[in-house]
Amino acid sequence: MAFLLRRLGWMAFTLWVVFTISFFLMRALPGGPFSSERKLPEAIERNIREHYKLDDPLVVQYLRQLGYALQFDFGYSYKLADFRVGEIIMQGLPISCTIGILALAVALGLGLATGIFAAVRRGTFLDYVFRAIATLGIAVPNFVIAGLSIILAVFVVRIFPAGGWGSLSQAMLPALCLGLPYAAYIARLTRSGMLDVLGQDYIRTAKAKGLTPAQIIFKHAIWGALLPVVTFLGPATAGILTGSIVLETIFAIPGIGMHLINAVTQRDYTLAMGLIMVDTAILCGLNLLIDLSYVWLDPRVKVAE
Amino acid sequence: MDQTWRKMFPYLALAVCGGAVAWALTFSTLAPADFTFCNGTEIETIDPARVTGQPEGRIISAVFDCLYRTDPETGEPMPGICTTMDVSKDFKHFVFPLRKDVRWTDDTPLTAKDFVWSFRRFLHPETASKYAYLMYYVVGARNYNAMRLKLGDAVEVELADRKVPEWQFPAGTIVRGTLKKLEGGKPGEPETDKDGFLVTGKETVYVVEDAQGKQHRFFRPTTGVSTPADITPCLHVLPDFEKTVGIHAPDDFTLDIKLNNSTPFFQKLMAFYPLSPVQQACIERHGYPLWTKAENIVSSGPFTLEFRRIRDRIRLKRSPTYWDAKNTRLETVDALAVQADATMLNLYLDGRADWITTVPAAVIPQLKERDDYLRRAILTTYFYRINVTQPPLNDKRVRQALNMAIDKQEIVEFVTKGGQVPARSLVPPGLVGYENPPQCGKYDPAAARKLLAEAGYPGGKGFPVIDILFNTAEGHKLIAEKVQDQWKKNLGIDTRPANQEWGVFLASTHSMHYQIARAAWGADYPDPNTFLDMWVKDGENNETGWHSEEYDQLIKAAEEETDAKKRMEIFQKAEAILMDELPIIPFYFYVKSDMVRTYVKGFYPNVLDIHPLEALSIDLEEKAKVLSER
Question: Predicted ipTM?
Answer without folding.
Answer: 0.82
